[in-house]
Each structure stands twice: as structure tokens, then as C-alpha cells.
Task: inverse folding
């Protein structure tokens, strides 16, 4: 566990509160431990935290999301043993939460470094196969050394999932992540997007609908959703960033 001096130093470096920094330390530590296990090759990291840690998106994130290509019983046997081992290394505990599909666990850390618990949702989805997974090396500012690759969905597949998220829920973070992935020249793969939309029984990809959902979100809600996840010097720029993102995505999707 990082100590108070290390935490304060990273708070100054990242320009964000200590809760967010400690949460990210725990996220990176969890990933380092998970991907040291041989069975983790079938557990693919994805979502906003993956975009942040692997592709260096500037926004911080709160949950860890995974696609699992493994039998559910086999996974539960593995993960329960893994959680038990982690609880012997750091002041963390794990509790299963009820969800409609897949598995969710709440990681709770009660550390002497801060006077309150820190929480991370761990979400494991089994509903789809990873389309073309990749592996990457994670570099981090935390005092954690990786000795194995991180297995994850490709940027292309994460973009497809972000399009689905924009069409099925309202979170400013999805808009931000889509913009960031498009900035990386990530391929807009219609076939993969349609595959992702099958789960919600959607049969077409309508660019105007995507843009309409983004424009309809509103700057105020975008700012409220994003404020906890950006450095303090970026908070006042969120409203103008939203306007820019809307225009950027509209132009980028025009010829798709």
C-alpha cells in the first residue's frame, strides 16, 4: 500500500483529490495481481478505466470492467480464490452484488492512509465473446511493477461498445470516451457496432441518432458527470469542451 507521503505527492502531480488517486492505485494494483494469474488470459479489460490506463485518456475512472470468455462456474471458483489471496495482502474485502447479468463485486479498501473506505465496482460480463482481443504493457506512476501483459478489448471494440452505451444510456463519460477514441483514429467499425447492438435488439447504426443523443445530453449534465474525473485545472473548461466534442464527433461521423 502506498503511504501518505506518496499519496500526497501523486495528488499534487495528478491535480486531483486523494480519493481518486488512491482508487487508481487500487485499480492498478488489482490489475497487476489479476494478470499475473494464468487464467486471466480469458478475462479482457475494457471500459473507461481501460481507455484511461491503456490509451492514456486524461479522465480518471471509478470502476473496472471486463469481458470474460470462460465458463461461469470456473470463473467463480478462480475469482473467489483470487479475492481471498488479495485480502491477505492489502486491507481489502470483496462482496458480491446482485446484477441482472454477469457478476459484480464491490472492492472495499479500509486503509490507514485515509480516514474513510474507498470503493471500486468490479464488473464481469459473459454475454459476448471478445471480437479481437489484444495485450498491452501498462506503464504507471504508482510504485507497482507489472511482470505480465494486460489482456483487453481492442480500441476498435471499445469504441463499438461506447457507441452502444451512448444509444442505450445517458452518461457524459461515454461521450468523452468516444471523442477520445476517435481522436486516436480508432476505426469506426459498423459491423462490430451492429454486433454490439444485437443485445439490445437494435438492427441499424444511425449516425444522426448518435449525434442527436450526444447533443441532447446537454452541457450542464456533461459537466456534472465529468467533474469528479478530471484534474482541478480542467474542471472550468468542461462546458466549452462539451461544445467542442459535440462538433468534433458530428464532423467525424459525417462520412461514416
Result:
Amino acid at each position: 500500500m502506498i503511504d501518505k507521503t506518496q499519496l500526497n505527492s501523486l495528488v499534487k502531480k495528478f491535480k486531483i483529490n486523494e480519493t481518486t488517486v488512491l482508487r487508481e492505485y487500487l485499480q492498478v494494483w488489482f490489475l497487476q495481481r489479476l494478470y499475473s494469474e494464468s487464467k486471466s488470459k480469458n478475462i479482457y479489460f475494457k471500459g473507461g478505466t481501460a481507455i484511461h490506463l491503456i490509451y492514456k485518456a486524461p479522465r480518471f475512472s471509478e470502476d473496472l470492467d471486463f469481458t470474460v470468455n470462460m465458463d461461469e462456474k470456473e470463473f467463480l471458483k478462480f475469482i473467489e480464490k483470487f479475492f481471498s489471496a488479495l485480502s491477505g495482502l492489502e486491507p481489502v474485502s470483496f462482496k458480491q452484488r446482485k446484477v441482472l447479468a454477469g457478476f459484480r463485486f464491490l472492492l472495499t479498501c479500509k486503509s490507514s492512509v485515509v480516514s474513510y473506505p474507498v470503493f471500486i465496482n468490479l464488473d464481469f460480463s459473459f454475454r459476448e465473446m471478445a471480437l479481437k482481443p489484444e495485450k498491452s504493457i501498462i506503464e504507471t506512476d504508482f510504485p507497482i511493477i507489472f511482470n505480465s501483459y494486460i489482456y483487453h478489448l481492442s480500441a476498435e471494440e471499445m469504441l463499438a461498445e461506447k457507441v452502444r452505451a451512448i444509444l442505450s444510456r445517458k452518461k457524459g463519460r461515454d461521450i468523452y470516451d468516444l471523442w477520445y477514441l476517435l481522436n486516436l483514429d480508432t476505426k469506426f467499425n459498423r459491423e462490430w457496432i451492429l454486433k454490439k447492438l444485437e443485445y439490445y435488439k437494435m438492427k441499424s447504426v444511425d449516425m444522426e441518432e448518435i449525434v442527436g443523443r450526444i447533443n441532447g445530453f446537454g452541457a450542464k449534465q456533461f459537466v456534472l458527470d465529468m467533474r469528479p474525473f478530471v484534474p482541478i485545472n480542467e474542471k472550468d473548461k468542461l462546458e466549452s469542451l462539451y461544445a467542442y466534442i459535440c462538433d468534433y464527433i458530428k464532423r467525424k461521423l459525417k462520412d461514416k
Remarks:
- Residues 18-34 form the longest helix (17 residues).
- The chain has two domains: 4-153, 156-253.
- The longest strand covers residues 118-125.
- The chain has a mean pLDDT of 95.
